Amino acid sequence: MKPLHRTPSAIAALAVATALAALAQAPLAQAEDKKAAAAKPALTVSTVRPEKTSLPIRLTANGNVAAWQEAVISSESNGLRLSDVKVNVGDVVAKGEVLAVFAPETPQAEVAQARAALMEAEAAAAEAKANADRARSIESTGALSAQQISQYTTAEATGQARAASARAMLASAELRLRYTRVVAPDAGVISARSATVGAVAGPGTELFRMIRQGRLEWRAEVTAADLRNLKTGTSAVVKAANGSELTGKVRMVAPTIDPQTRSALVYVDLPAANGKQPPFKAGMFATGQFELGSSDALTVPQQAITVRDGFSYVFRLNQDQRVSQVKVQPGRRIGDRIEVLSGLATDALIVAAGAGFLNDGDLVRNTGAPAQAAAAAKPAR
Predict the structure, then answer these.
(1) pLDDT tens track for 257-303
(2) Residues 2-24, buried b or exposed e (16+ Cβ, 10 A)?
(3) Among 116, 117, 297, 314, which one has the highest count of C-beta atoms within 10 angstroms of its own C-beta?
(4) 242 and 224 in contact (C-beta within 8 Å)?
(5) pLDDT number for residue 65
């Protein structure tokens, strides 16, 4: 056979055809590459199903810790020098315990003088009584006139009145002497002290303040709309700014509402410290939650909810392994779970973690669906 000889023009035409064929196949190859890239999962995720959980119903409020009752202990002596102060701020005292002592010399002298005056008045009353008795015994004989007998009986009554007055003066002096010892009107804790040794205090001068029985209360401010949920005996967990927590009970709801704030005070009794250092102090600001019972709720893990543009979303896994962004309304929170009020079906399979990296319609690889499906197939207890 003779060798095939190609002219230069034929060679050029063949090259052009080859180039055109290559250009025609390039878009097909790129489309296949894009299709393969689009089919690649965007993220490997684990999934869960919503759970029905019993969540507590709580009402949060703020308020101040104050003394249940604060007693003001004042001086009842007039112009006496304070000679001894036996207690200080923070001391726990019993009912009737001596807190301070005034100088007793002047009251003691007044008591002695009043006692002597009483003895003199009683002696005079006894003599007048004896004279009146004798006058009455001879009244029938006519030895004494009616006027004389009347004078004797009047002297008897006057003597008795003077003796009674002397007894009252003695009781007053003894009472003033007793006032030299300032005693606690009730058991409690001394919260303030203004008594100073050597000071001369007038009547009514404040010496101490005392928290009666050491009892504190939390005065929570609650809006008028929430008052209907509270009643006497409702439990409340109170947490102070220093981290201390106590559980108390509602003692009383205020009968009036502040017209400025439209809120009312709810008085919560706090348990006593029982001799230990009290975790709460009067005047503390505290936050608390009233326990109003519990209710069933649909909950999801906290990581399953993502917030975008001010709204909350979860990502539901569809049968084609793509996710759909679903808008939900969150509610109460307990631990690492959040209540979903609306927008989510009870049997939906949602992305448990990594939702913040997903977009609506993304293809994902699910690693937790079989386990979740098996768990969902089990009957609820």
Answers:
(1) 989 988 999 999 998 766 566 778 888 899 999 988 888 888 888 88
(2) eeeeeeeeeeeeeeeeeeeeeee
(3) 314
(4) no
(5) 92
Dist CA 295 CA 56 (whole Å): 6
Q: Which residue has the tokens 């069933």?
A: 296
Per-residue tokens: 220: 């929570």
Chain centroid to CA 217: 8
Q: Are 298 and 309 in contact (CB under 8 A)?
A: no
Q: In angstroms, rounded to a whole number, what is the distance separating the alpha carbons of residues 140 and 172?
A: 44
Q: Calculate ∠ Cα 57-61-64, nearest 5°.
A: 145
pLDDT of residue 378: 41
Kindly report the pTM of this predicted structure: 0.63
Average confidence (pLDDT) over 110-117: 94
Q: Which two tokens stand for residue 167?
A: 């007894």
DSSP codes of every residue in 176-232 = HHHTTEEE-SSSEEEEEE---TT-EEPTT-EEEEEEETT-EEEEEEEEGGGGGG--T
Fill in the DSSP letter of residue 304.
G
- Give the position of tokens 């609820």: 380
Tokens (6 digits) for 343: 């927008």
**What one-character DSSP code corresponds to residue 302?**
G
| 88-109 per-position pLDDT tens digit | 998 999 999 999 999 999 999 9
